[in-house]
Amino acid sequence: MDSSSSDSVLPVVAVSFQLPLIDFSDKTLKPGSSKWDEVKIDVRKALEDYGCFEASFDKVSLELKKSVFEAVEELFKLPVQTRQRNVSSKPYHGYLSHNLYQSFGIDDANVFDKVNDFTRQLWPDHGNKSISETIHQFSEKLSELEVMVRRMIMESFGIQRYIDEHLNSTNYILRLMEYTTPLDADDEEESKLGLRAHTDKNMITILHQHQVEGLEVKTKDEKWIKVKPSQDSFIVMVGDSLCALLNGRVFSPYHRVMLTGKKTRYSTGLFSVPKTGVTIDSPDELVDEEHPRLFKPYDYNDFLHFFSTEAGRSAQSALHAFAAL
Ligand SMILES: O=C(O)CCC(=O)C(=O)O
Ligand SMILES: [Fe+2]
User: What is the distance in A from the centroid of ligand 2 to the CA of 165?
Assistant: First the structure.
C-alpha cells in the first residue's frame, strides 16, 4: 500500500532468494506454549534481518484461496465505471488504478457487514453474498495470523502489557490487486514495473501472490530479491509504523512489483492500519542508552498526509523525513 519511489531510474535485476519460512500451522501454537516461544524467536530474527518472512498458515485452506482468486477475477471483469464505485471515506482506501496496476480496497474486511457494504457498492441491488462470504472468511482467518505475529513481536521485546491497547488501535483493509501487461508490449522478456519501490506505511502487511511472480524485496544490504509465489504460504511484512512503534528494532523493507511475460498477475494484501487519531509512540521500555529514541510521536494520518506531498514522496525514507529525531 502507499506507493512511493526510492528508485528514480529503473532497477537493478533481482536475484532469487528464499526468505525465512516460518510454520504457523501447528495446532499447539498458542501463547505460552513451548512451540509459541520457539516460533517467536524465528519471527523476531526474520523481522530484524529482513523485515519480512514467508508464513505457512493452513487455517486459510487452498480451497478458500482458490475461491478468493475466482472472486478477484470476477471483480476485475466488472466495467470500469462499476469498479470506480468502490470508494472510501479514507484517502487511498477505495479503487485505485495507475499504469499496469489496479486494486479494490475493502475497509474492515474482517467484519461481514463491511464486506457486504463493499459488494453493495458494486451490485447496489443485492450485493453479492457469495463473494462477500469468501472475502470475509479469508480476511478473518488471515487476521488471526497477523495478530499472532504482533503478539509474538511485542512479547519478544518485553512490551506485552501494551498488547491489548495496541491491537485495539488498528483495523484492517484488504486490497485485491491486478497487474496487466499490455498485449502489444514489445519485448516479452523485458521486466516492467508494476508497482514502484516503496515501504508500507501501516503496521503489518500480509501478501499473497497468486501463481504469477513479481514481488521483489530489498535487503538491508540493498540487494533486490525475488519472492516466489507459493500456494501454501503468505508473506508477512513490517510497515513503517511498526518500525516506529518498536523504536527501529524491526526493519520495514522497500519492495516493488516487476512483471515479466504477459500473464495477468493477481495478489492480495491484508494491511493492519492505525485507526484515525491514534498516535504512534515507542514505549519507554524500548529506549535506553544503546537504543536512543529515534522518532517523535506522530499521528498516523499526519504521516499519510506528509507522504502525499512532494517532500514525502521524494524522500529516501518518508518515515525518517517525517518523524526522525
Ligand atoms: O502485489 C504485491 O505483491 C505487492 C503489493 C504491495 O506492495 C502493496 O500493495 O503495498
Ligand atoms: Fe507494499
Answer: 25
